[in-house]
Amino acid sequence: MSNLTFLASSSHPLYTLNLDKHLLGYYTIQYVCQGELEVAYDDQFYSLTDQPSGWFFPAYPGPRLRFHPRTLGGTWWHRHLAFQGDRVEQWRAQGLWLTEPQLCPESIDGGARLDTIIALSRATSRWSHERAINQLEALLLDLAEARTTPATESPWLARVLALLGEDFTPDYEQLARTLECSLATLRRRFKRETGQALHEYVIVQRVARARTLLLETDYPLREIAARLGYDSEFFFARQFKQVALVTPGEYRRSGLFIPPPG
């Protein structure tokens, strides 16, 4: 039987941790729900928005892992399971191991599945330990299957995103007219298809572009604010901090997170 040793586990309904570390010699699988956070592996940045099915994300030796709430004072329900052993190398070789966050498929009750595995991993009997390994592998198989099943984006959503493009100050009324629907319908359908409010999506894209400009140019803050459609440098700085949790100046000096292309 391949070796796998469970090291630690936890479940926190109101989690607020800001983490920044390299893992040495062990792996973790994490499940988060009922809240929002930002996660980065070295220079790859991910926003985990609040989704009914929750998110899985891994931690593993190599990249620098960082995560924190997306908003000041934000919390989320966080479950984690840590382990080590050559079984993980088999999973990696087979393509079962996650290397980035994955939205939990609606067909999987992520919280209940991981709770069961955690309970088995804490039991003292040999057979509970083996069941924990088998159920963890079954979960990874289900997630791998979901990753390899082509996702379909609705033509309506594709059109909305194309119309938005890099317009950081869209006229929502005009967008609704172009799509031949009411503004209320536009907002409701966008939220249903993405899990994110329309205006929140635009703000996140706006701040992501600001991050790039802060790190890749020497433009003064007032010019970046103007390029992104802000009338006020003060309001730009306030909105940036609401999303990134640091001021634009602090972000530029520290290079905290670099967003992925696009």
Automatic annotation (TrEMBL):
Annotated SUPFAM superfamilies: Homeodomain-like (SSF46689)
UniProt xrefs under PANTHER family: ARAC-FAMILY TRANSCRIPTIONAL REGULATOR, REGULATORY PROTEIN POCR
Organism per entry: Armatimonas rosea
Keywords annotated in UniProt: DNA-binding, Transcription, Transcription regulation
Residues of the HTH araC/xylS-type domain: 173-254
Gene Ontology MF terms: DNA-binding transcription factor activity; sequence-specific DNA binding
Protein name as catalogued: AraC-like DNA-binding protein
